[in-house]
Each structure stands twice: as C-alpha cells, then as structure tokens.
Amino acid sequence: MNSSQAILRNLQQIQSRINSACLKAKRPVDSVQLLLATKTVSAENIQVALQAGYSLMGENKVQELKEKYEALKTSPHQSHFIGHLQTNKIKDILKYGVHCVQSLDRWELAEKLHQRLLFEQKKMDVLIQVNTSQEASKFGVPPNEALALVRKVATLDTLQIRGLMTIGLFTTEPEKTRPCFKKLKSLQQQILALNLPGVDAQELSMGMSGDLEIAIEEGATIVRVGTAIFGTRPHPDSYYWNEQSKTV
Ligand SMILES: *Cc1c(COP(=O)(O)O)cnc(C)c1O
User: Fold this and answer.
1) Shortest-distance atom of ligand 1 to CA 225
2) Does the CB atom of residue 209 touch ligand 1 within 6 A?
3) Is the CB of 84 under 6 A from ligand 1?
4) Angle CA(87)–CA(221)–CA(157) in degrees, nearest 5?
5) 21-57 pLDDT, tens digit each
C-alpha cells in the first residue's frame, strides 16, 4: 500500500471512530469536526487528506506553516494554529493565512495579536488553551485563571472567542484523560453563563488519536488527529510541546 492509500484508509477508520462515538453519545455525527494535525507531515500527504474532503488543518510551528504554505494554497482549507505561539511570530501567522489560533493562553499574546490585527485591519478567531492536566511543563492557562483571561480577551474586538482547547494528560491509558475533558466542558459552561458580549464559546477542541472517543463523549466539537492518519512522527510529542513533558 502506498502512503496516500494508507492515509485514505486511516481517514475512513478515524471517521468511523468519530461516527460511533457520536452515536454512543447520542450526538449528530456532524457535530464533531476532524482537524488534521499536520506537524512533520509533507504538503503532499496533507493534500491527500484535503482532497478527501477534510479541510481543517492545524500546525504547531510557524516554520512548518511557512514551508507548506505555497504548496497548499491551491487546495481550499482552513488553517488553525495549535502550537505554542511566540509573540514575535504573530506577523507570520497572519501572513500565512491562519484563520484561528487555538492556543491563546496568555494576556500578553492576546494584546500583541490585537495590536497587529488592528494595524492590518483584520479579525481572528481564537480558542483559549487551558492546561487541564496541570502538568507544569505544558502550555495553557491554568483552569482557575481561565475565566479571567476570557473576560479580558472578550474586550478586544479583533479577537473572536470561539471556545476552548486542551491537550489531555500525557498517558498511555486514554481513560485518564477524561477528567481533563470534563474540566474543559465545565469551564465552557461557566463562560456561556457569563453571557459576555461578542463571545460565542461553542467550540471544544479536545481529543487526539488515542482518546478521541472519550473527548466526544465529554462534548468535543473538534478532535485533532495526527498519528492515526499520517503515521508516527520522528519525535515524541514532548519534542513538539515541551522537553520536560513525561508520559504517565
Ligand atoms: C500533535 C498534536 C495533536 C495530534 O496528536 P496525535 O496523537 O498524533 O493524534 C493534537 N493536538 C496538538 C496540539 C498536537 O500538537
């Protein structure tokens, strides 16, 4: 089997996992979007998935966004940023067509994004990334500071808060991620109850190759899947997130 056949087969398997999880949770199958997590994946392989009808993709590093931009320009897609974003890369993510930053996790970043967006007369969707696993090494706002950050970001009219994102606990036992997803859902309920003007926090981006069923049971609207579609990556996830992360 060549790599594009493998990708197409894997996409079918992921879609059927999503569909079964939705049925089990009594949710419509179209209530969950699949985001292609494309770190280290070639533009050619990404195109296989885009042409199969999956149009939402997320990169972790600005460098990769840049490298694949030209090749992917001709395939319609929506680009999200899902990695740690340094403020000095803000110009680049606007230049390379990022539609939504899912990893907004601090006020400084929100403020700088806002300034740049004002200057370019643009707006952008964001998700607030929450560190639901409370591992010191992972990015995301601590759960007890999330509401305060949401309130502040809501005052910036260039940033449209669409919901929350989290990376579940690093674990080989998917069930252990459930409390993280429950936490994110409960924060979302609290945000919705605030009725903040201009905030429409319907999206919950949670669940990956190993734990997407659990995330869907707990209310995910976007699952971010890499390995189960494109195969294993050259480095462990800790390399892309933070060197100190450990598997538990
Ligand atoms: C890599 C990555 C994913 C996908 O992880 P897989 O286990 O390969 O499915 C999802 N979200 C983020 C933020 C990632 O960095």
Assistant:
1) 9
2) yes
3) no
4) 40
5) 999 999 999 999 999 999 999 999 999 999 999 999 9
